[in-house]
Amino acid sequence: MGGKLTGFTVDNYEQALKSLLPKGPAWESEQADVISAVLYLTAKELQRIDLDIAQLIDESDPRTASATLSQWYKEWGIPDECLKSLGSTTSEQWRKILVTKIRSLGLTYSELLVVIARVSGMKSATAQRVEPFTTASRTNQRLYGRSWDHAVLIISATTDQIQYFRTSSRTDERLAQWGNALFECLVRETSPAHKVLVFSYTED
Length: 204
What we know:
By secondary structure, this protein is α+β, with helices and mostly antiparallel strands. The chain has two domains: about 50 residues; about 100 residues, GMP Synthetase, Chain A, domain 3. About 45% of the residues lie in helices and about 15% in strands. The strands form two sheets. A three-stranded mixed sheet has the order 1-2-5. Helix 1 packs across helix 2 and helix 5 packs antiparallel against helix 6. It is elongated. The relative contact order is 0.10.
């Protein structure tokens, strides 16, 4: 990160300024040293402005911003409740959440789930409404009533983070452990308030 050099040095600017001076012996008087100093300082300032302009390109993108990153966080309400609930978090996690929030503008819910999944380290994620049991349902389908159709949303996520009980595991450990706190918090934050979310994890 940081401003990229434009290729113009202080000497380049100084020579350009000198070329703009009128011709004649006036510039060879005792004032010549003072004029040269002024031109040098002006050239130095022009190069600084050049670098600041190049830096502005980086600062306009949250993925590369550094000097303005704290302002980005403030404008987008970061750390949000999800990051606060995780306790100790890194600056890179903050940046990922920031980029996710910006990228989520204008996305459908299905598209948003994919973005959240990638940021949270998941392979993929989809949302599925619960289907009420009817006379046309399969015999092995669950007996959900019609009210469930509007209240429950099943979030299916593919991950490689499922941990199984091993011979080296402690006796009090679970036979299998899964879940992603950041993923679930972000999904809840962006889901309709009236929906009850059920998270289902499968291996890749």
